[in-house]
Structures are given as C-alpha cells and as structure tokens.
Design a protein that fits this description.
The chain is of the alpha+beta class. The protein has a single domain, classed as Alpha-Beta Plaits, CATH 3.30.70.560. The chain contains four helices and eight strands; from the N terminus they run βαβββαβββααβ. A hairpin with a 5-residue loop joins β6 and β7. The chain starts with a strand and ends with a strand.
C-alpha cells in the first residue's frame, strides 16, 4: 500500500468535474483526505479561473498504474489532450508525491511533480500534509509553502457543493 498525494484542477464546469472526481476517488480508494478548493488564475495561458484542490489516497497501485487510472478518469470527464500544453481543462489530476519515491518516467510521470513549485499545487498539499518531507528536497510542504512568493497572497476558497 502506498500513499499518493494528488493535485486536482478544473476550469471548465469546475465544480461538477471536481465533485465527480472526488466521488470516483472515494469509490476506488475509500477514504480520501481533501484540502479546501481554491479558485486560482490560469497559469501559462489566458483562460477561466481554475478550481484547485489536493487529495491523499492510500493505493495498492504502483505509480504508473495509478497514473493510468487517473488518466482514464480524466478521459471519462472529457479531458482533451490534443490542445496546447497549457489550456482549459475539464479535469486534471496529477500524482505530485507518492510515499518517498523519486521517479522520472515512463512518459510524463515525474515524482515529485515539477508543478509542485506552483502555488495552486503547493498550497492545497501543504494544507493537508504540512509535515511531509519532499523527497530529493529535504524540506516539508509547510516549509516550501512559507518560502513561496505567493504565500502572503489572500486565497479564494471555492464552494463546489456536494
């Protein structure tokens, strides 16, 4: 059994897609630890604001198998992968951390996920796992968040209902 730390985001029918993703995570993995949902500006393109959250699940799946399962969940929510790297998304779920593993591939699988540097990934994870030490870095999520340039910016918490 491994502990996976996930980043969830959507900016197209965001509340609906995040509720659906959370329900699917609970159905597949049981208990899910969830952060608040934050409303954040799109990064890397001009688009609608995102709703971002983080989740912790216990999984018997190895990281690649979990990544495949998450991609299938995104696909069920209408995720389009043919557009630009940075663009509107119905659902985006990434494995940011998995236990104390360091992985480079196969494919796009990177653990820790490079997007951990973004506030929209780091803030929610620091909310639910502040004392977790990031492999390869040695600092906790709380330490990384306190050092982040956006740390003192006000957060907008979104209510997704359900």
């Amino acid at each position: 059994m491994g502990k996976a730390y996930l980043s969830l985001g959507s900016n197209l029918d965001a509340a609906e897609h995040l509720r659906g993703a959370i329900a699917a995570l609970r159905e597949r993995f049981g208990e899910v630890v969830l952060s608040p949902v934050y409303r954040t500006r799109a990064v890397g393109f001009v688009g609608a604001d995102f709703y971002n959250s983080a989740a912790i699940v216990d999984s018997e799946l190895e990281p690649q198998a979990l990544n495949d399962w998450l991609h299938a969940l995104e696909d069920r929510h209408g995720r389009v992968r043919t557009g630009p790297r940075y663009g509107d998304r119905t659902l985006d779920i990434d494995i940011v951390l998995y236990d104390d593993r360091l992985l480079e591939g196969p494919g796009n699988l990177r653990i820790p996920r490079p997007e951990l540097k973004h506030a929209f990934v780091l803030r929610p994870l620091a909310d639910i796992a502040p004392d977790l030490v990031v492999p390869g870095d040695g600092r906790t999520l709380a330490e990384l968040w306190r050092a982040h340039p956006d740390h003192d910016q006000a957060a907008v918490v979104a209510d997704i209902g359900g």
